[in-house]
Specification:
573 residues; alpha/beta; Cytidine Deaminase, domain 2; eleven-stranded mixed sheet; two-stranded antiparallel ribbon; 13 strands; 55% helix; disordered C terminus; transferase; transferase activity
Length: 573
């Protein structure tokens, strides 16, 4: 079996010393983590490795020796490096040497304590220690067969480097008995801004947690469970979005440490999503309050509402005549038309009654944009729902009347066929009817059948108007869902530091020569943008129906009500 040695590229110019790392016997692989330089005392090295192993839970040991012949010219050093194998006693003992200015390296692995001591065939694989430690390996979704085995082998290597973070916290400026070379040996990578933010985040999270617990207690109080407030909380999308954002704030302000990398990325995605949402909301608020745009919007709203009401009146006058040359039942047509015209008159009076307060209402509503762009969009959706409430009422009246006639005709049609609906067994059974029942059923069926076209026309017109409003609200909620669920932090990380989100690795041949070990370079393959969105997409509340086209057409035909959104615990009628 070929021995694979994973060597960090940052140690290629290190001074001579010994190689420390982890031996993975299942894969016959050695992961080199650092180089210990001379002078050192073997006992101190063993004690240091014991402490590292106790903290990291990684079986770190001395795997072999490293010789840089460009810096060391004494032959005694090479003999001393060979003798170190008897002190640390690792099988196999790996010897890597750099031959001066030559690009060729020599790498050998010797098993001295076996019955037939011989050198094994070695493949030397270079890897970027910084990228491997900071990256998070994402195994393929279809982990089956060979791909699952390869993913497990790679995860063992990535996990070894990631868990050995304590080993990389020492640099050459530390005053200690052991000098190491690794990716941070020239200085520990850190940021003053990040450290200050870490120190400031503790009291900020404590304050935020207290405020959120207070708000959550108010939301769970019995006052909000009474009928008017509970009804508004379940129907208004603004309340749903505020509750959704409240859950997000509780997640990011929690003092519990992230259990794994996925949980940490979820917290970061929520934090960046909240930050960008609030920033966009503040920009929208600054745009609204500049140049008195709130006043212009309030002055435009009343004429637009009057114009919509006039168009609806013209539409009803058209329906009360002979629409498209159709012969309607005049009595029912006049009753329905006057009924809907009276509702439009009430709606116009209601709008003009609120006209002096609309600018003040919009002024206070604009302030809610500081809570985020998604909250402002949900308020816009609720305002559209309130402004088109008369269209919703028309749709409900028409749908209920049409549904009543459809179910009445279907029941009377079963009467003609000698059938009836068994309520207990939930099925259609045979039944015998007398002459009077058949006569009355025939009269009712005739009346409902001739009145159906008039009712169906009103239902069709108001359903189309209702669908137009639902489409507008659906587009708004799609935008809200996009902002809520898009993993912005992961996408920014994929764009700027793609190695942090690793989908796998690829190997490039650096050197292949007879008598020399095969040298490969391991490079990280980043996740695609689609996989990033699929993996780290944030959950959202269900704000619009996800029915199929067949189910939607069936509901329209039977006259069942269509709501613009479906909330938690609420079934669609």
């Amino acid at each position: 079996m070929v021995l694979k040695v994973f060597f960090p590229s940052c140690c290629s110019s290190a001074d001579s010393g010994i190689l420390i790392g982890r031996w993975i016997s299942e894969q016959n692989s050695a992961v080199i983590l650092a180089v210990v330089h001379f002078p050192f005392i073997p006992v101190q090295v063993k004690q240091y490795l014991g402490e590292v192993q106790r903290v990291t839970k990684v079986s770190v040991s001395v795997l072999g020796s490293w010789s840089n012949s460009k810096q060391e010219k004494e032959e005694s050093l090479s003999e001393f490096l060979e003798d170190l194998g008897t002190i640390f006693c690792h099988e196999p003992w790996i010897q890597i040497s750099k031959e001066g200015d030559s690009k060729f390296w020599s790498c050998s692995a010797l098993r001295k304590h076996s019955k037939n001591p011989q050198q094994e065939e070695v493949i030397l694989v270079y890897y970027d220690q910084r990228k491997v430690m900071l990256s998070h390996l994402h195994p393929p979704l279809d982990t089956a067969g060979q791909r699952a085995e390869d993913a497990s082998k790679l995860s063992a290597i990535f996990d070894t480097v990631a868990r050995s973070r304590v080993l990389f916290m020492t640099d050459r400026y530390d005053e200690g008995p052991i000098k190491l070379t690794h990716w941070q040996s020239d200085g520990v990578e850190a940021s003053i801004i990040v450290e200050l933010m870490k120190q400031a985040s503790v009291p900020a999270c404590m304050l935020l947690t207290f405020l959120l617990s207070l708000v959550s207690g108010i939301c769970r109080s019995r006052v909000l469970k009474f009928w008017p407030l509970s009804f508004l909380w379940s129907k208004l999308s603004t309340c749903e979005q505020l509750g959704h954002r409240l859950q997000h704030l509780q997640v990011i302000s929690s003092n519990k440490k992230a259990q794994n990398q996925t949980h940490l990325m979820r917290k970061a995605n929520i934090f960046v999503s909240l930050l960008i949402d609030v920033a966009l909301g503040v920009l929208l608020m600054s745009w609204l309050y500049r140049k008195n745009r709130i006043g212009h919007l309030a002055d435009t709203l009343i004429p637009v509402a009057d114009r919509v009401a006039e168009e609806l009146q013209d539409l009803l006058q058209w329906l009360m005549g002979a629409p498209a040359g159709l012969k309607m039942n005049r009595a029912l047509d006049q009753v329905l038309g006057r009924f809907f015209l009276y509702h439009i008159h009430l709606w116009i009076s209601y709008i003009h009654l609120l006209s002096p307060f609309i600018e003040m209402i919009l002024w206070y509503v604009g302030l809610s944009a500081c809570l985020g762009l998604t909250v402002a969009l949900c308020i816009l959706s609720d305002i559209i729902a309130l402004l088109t409430f008369h269209i919703y009422c028309f749709y409900v009246y028409g749908a209920r009347l049409y549904c009543l006639k459809i179910y009445g005709l279907s029941s009377l049609w079963r009467l003609f066929r000698g059938k009836k609906w068994n309520v207990l067994r939930q099925r259609v059974d045979s039944c015998s009817y007398d002459l009077d029942q058949l006569f009355i059923g025939t009269l009712l069926f005739t009346i409902l059948l001739f009145l159906l076209p008039t009712t169906a026309l009103y239902y069709l017109v108001f359903t189309l108007l209702r669908l137009l409003v639902v489409i507008v609200q659906g587009l708004i909620h799609l935008l809200v869902d996009l902002i809520d669920s898009l993993p912005l932090y992961s996408l920014i990380l994929r764009l700027c530091r793609s190695y942090r989100l690793a989908a796998g690795v690829k190997f490039r041949v650096l050197e292949q020569q007879d008598g020399k070990p095969l040298r490969l370079l391991m490079q990280i393959n980043p996740l695609s943008y689609g996989s990033v969105v699929q993996t780290y997409r944030l959950p959202t509340y269900s704000c619009y129906p996800k029915d199929s086209w067949a189910s939607l057409c069936k509901k329209l035909f039977l006259g069942e009500l269509i709501y613009p959104w479906k909330h938690k615990g609420e079934k669609q009628n």
